[in-house]
Amino acid sequence: MNTINNNLHRYILPSLSGKGRGAVLLRGMGLLLLTSLLFTSCGIYKSYERPADLQTDGLYGSAQTGSGEQSTGAMHWRQFFTDPTLQALIQQALTQNTSMRQVDLQIQEAQAYLKCSKLAYIPSLVFTPQGQLSSWDWSAPNKTYSLPITASWQIGSFGQLRNAKKSAEVAVEQTQTVRMAVQQSLVANVANLYYTLCMLDAELAVSEQTTANWKQSVELNKKLMEAGRSNKAAVAQSEANYLNVSASVLDLQEAITQAENALCTILGEAPHHIQRTSLESFQAPAVQTGLPISLLQNRPDVRQAELKLASAFYAVNTAKAAFYPSLTISGTLGFTNSAGSTVINPGKFIWNALGQLTQPLFANGRLRAQKKVAELQQEEAKLAFQQSLVAAGNEVNTALATLQKTTGKDELIKAQVKALGDAVQATEALYKDNVSRSVNYLNVLTAQTGLLSAQLGLISNQFATVQATIDLYQALGGGSIE
């Protein structure tokens, strides 16, 4: 509304008090423009506001923790991932990754378009010098020239320029949100690959230790067979188990190489060994989901959905503005020696001014159709925005449930590993000393296999806890942009 008042006092009202034919023309244009303004809704000058009927209550289900809006997702990634080695890798990825560099260039492009939209408010100037030689029947040629500067100023577009600028501002925010999404994805991917390597290291260590133990079991069975206390079947079975776990060691080594190469690709480097600590070094911060409203600030996809709604809002305003008149003022100031067919030397200054008012009267329903389409697209964007919140809330609930389950299983699996370790020692001792005829190599094999499975299960559960924590961090927003 302030824009309308400013235009009235600066451009229209002064023209109504002028005299002469030019003033009469300007007065008529001013009256038409003023009449249109009186019937124009101020809605086309409104800024986007978040819908009042947006549903955010209960998005987390029963997973909400904490009563404030601050959540784990708002933490900076350095506060979340405290391993110095991992921090260095993440920083390296954010600096060197080509996706981050590309989105930075996209932000610069959007900012350039925004600058153009802002400059649309000021007049455009064009300098078009001209020169001409003309002769009649080979007489001495006449030399004419013109040095004009032409200005054009669109001052009465009824919100079109403003809504174009607002749309450009939204586009800048959208590219910034894309950058936030790329950063959060990079941080999560580097962390997942880093702890995947830590998990594979732990599995490799267990497998190598099992290989050494089962190799001793093969040697023991051979000695027992020589002493007549075992048989060929037990020796062959022990050898098969040893060879199987030896093959798994090679598989793990290959998986480590693949994971390191994948991480090097993210870092933008040639394949090389990745320095790392251990899976046990991961220390997750206390989880605080905060209120669901925090998703609006932290989640890139939710923010992107809202920005699309804002863009659709300004598109509706632009469609409405097309129904109202547009006022353009243009003029020329220059120096010339050409006055029609007369050549004047020396040259003289020349100027002219023109005001043009354009009011759509009949466009075969095109303007109404464009407005209807824009309004429908705005409704679609609103539904997509609400759905993005629902999906985000479900992701938070799922990640937190997984984290609680894996955390609860950790102590149980540790107790299982200890019990199976005791069982292996006792069974091997009975089998070796031949105290009980009821204990054969099948009992030893069952105990050893159960222990290996439990040890690998513990490592897998620890890694699942790490992944669930990272997933929850992402579901809550994934931290702030640097």
Structural write-up:
With 482 residues, the protein is an alpha+beta fold. A hairpin with a 2-residue loop joins strand 4 (326-339) and strand 5. Strands 1, 2, 3, 4 and 5 form a five-stranded antiparallel beta sheet that branches. The chain starts with a helix and ends in a 7-residue tail after the last helix. It has eleven helices and five strands, in the order αααααβββααααββαα. It folds into two domains: 1-39, no CATH class; 40-475, Up-down Bundle (Outer membrane efflux proteins (OEP)). It has helices at 2-12, 20-39, 77-80, 84-96, 98-119, 160-226, 232-267, 295-298, 300-321, 366-433, 441-475; strands at residues 124-127, 130-134, 142-156, 326-339, 342-358. 63% of the residues lie in helices and 11% in strands.
For the termini, the CA-CA separation is: 37 Å
User: How many strands, which pairing sense, and closed or not: the largest β-sheet?
Assistant: 5 strands, antiparallel
* Net shape: elongated
* CATH homology superfamily name of the largest domain: Outer membrane efflux proteins (OEP)
Note poorly predicted spans: 1-22
Which whole number gives the mean pLDDT? 78
Tally of alpha and pi helices: 11
Rg estimate, integer Å = 38 Å
What are the defining features of this structure?
482 residues; alpha+beta; Outer membrane efflux proteins (OEP); 2 domains; five-stranded antiparallel sheet; 11 helices; 11% strand; elongated
